[in-house]
Structures are given as C-alpha cells and as structure tokens.
Automatic annotation (TrEMBL):
Coiled coil: none annotated. Gene3D superfamilies: 3.10.310.50. Residues 1-75 form the TPM domain. It comes from Candidatus Saganbacteria bacterium. Pfam families: TPM_phosphatase (PF04536). Keywords: Membrane, Transmembrane, Transmembrane helix. This is TPM domain-containing protein. The chain crosses the membrane at residues 106-126, 132-163. The keyword Iron does not apply. InterPro entries: TPM_dom. The keyword Transcription regulation does not apply.
Length: 204
C-alpha cells in the first residue's frame, strides 16, 4: 500500500525499496519493488535483516542497524550493476559485520552518515512524545545522478523509516500506515509505486 501511495521508486522502473521499522512492535520489514526483485529477492532481503540488522536492534541500536542494512543493500545493488557492466564484483568472503554504506562510494557513505545523524537527532528530540514519527528520506533522482548511476536510483528514490514509541497502536500492524501521506511524492523522477510483494520481515 505504501509503495502505491508514496509512488516509491523511479517512474517506469519501480526500483524502490522501503524499510519499515517499528520499535514498539519489535519488527522490521524490507519491501522490494518490481524493478529490484531480480537483485534483492525474498531470500536476500531476509539475509540482510538476519545478518546485518537484527543483532543491533536486539541491543536497541536502531541507527546502527539501519545504517548497516542500508550498506548491505547498496553493496548488492553495486555488485549487480558491476556484473551487468561486465566488471563482476563479488561480496563473497566479506565478514557479515558492520559494513555501512561506504562500499557504495564516498558520496553515498557521506549521505548515509547525514541521514543517520538526522534520524538520531529526531529520535532524541521526540522520545518524550507518544509518537516519534514517520520519516521519509528521498535519496534517489539527484543522488543517482551524482553517483554516476553506480547505485542507480539508490534504492529507487525513497527509504522510509518508521520509528514508533508507545503511540504505535498496533492496529493492523504495518498495514495501518499510509493515511495522510498519499501521492505527495509523485513528481519529478519519482512515480514508481509497484511492489511485487517481495521482501522479508522479522521480529526480534
């Protein structure tokens, strides 16, 4: 539902990825658009959560878990693009520890650091309220252009993070999100919005 309402992904490519995190329900989900299912299938999405994110979430280190998961996603996309261009790169043999998005290039690493800082600032600013909020981070389009397409529409255009404290009612779980945010991000290069139902979810 969020893919359609937020028009996540680049128009005509549907190459978006949505990461949903609810600290109240202790659950994380990765939803993958049609255009990236060949690169990040259900099994790979599950491996990213299991190997790069859950250990941090169990310790309450949500920023680190998100940062690490984003780095793993960026590495997979970079590897797939390298293989398509004939310069095959392999992730084999890499330790499944904190990777961060640095593997996707210096610019991506810098952008990711800024994103995490913003998330942490918002976290500390709003933890006194019932609801931390919904943070939509637009990273595609211009970022994909600046990185020379290495990460493409870096994860389509949007990685959405949902962080909730107390105010998340649990009515319908993640499916309850979406009201009041529809359609606003469909301009420019954005305008995807088709998720093939692929991805993975885990509780901790």
């Amino acid at each position: 539902k969020l893919f359609k309402e937020w028009k996540i992904g680049k128009a005509g490519k549907d190459n978006g990825i949505l990461i949903l995190l609810s600290t109240d329900e202790q659950r994380v989900e990765i939803e993958v658009g049609y255009g990236l299912e060949g690169t990040i299938n259900d099994a790979k999405a599950g491996e990213i959560i299991d190997n790069y994110m859950l250990s941090f979430f169990k310790k309450g280190q949500f920023g680190e878990g998100l940062y690490n998961g984003m780095g793993a996603i960026a590495d997979l996309i970079k590897t797939a693009e390298s293989q398509e261009s004939g310069t095959e790169e392999s992730l084999g043999g890499q330790e499944k520890g904190p990777v961060g998005p640095g593997g996707g290039g210096g610019l991506w690493g810098g952008i990711a650091v800024v994103i995490i800082i913003i998330l942490l600032l918002l976290l500390f600013a709003f933890t006194s309220g019932r609801f931390l909020g919904l943070i939509g981070i637009i990273i595609g389009g211009g970022v994909g252009f600046l990185t020379g397409g290495m990460i493409g529409a870096i994860i389509g255009a949007v990685i959405g993070f949902m962080l909730s404290y107390g105010g998340y009612s649990g009515r319908g779980g993640f499916g309850g999100w979406g009201g009041g945010m529809s359609g606003g991000w469909g301009g420019g290069d954005f305008g995807g919005g088709r998720s093939g139902g692929g991805g993975a979810g885990r509780n901790w």
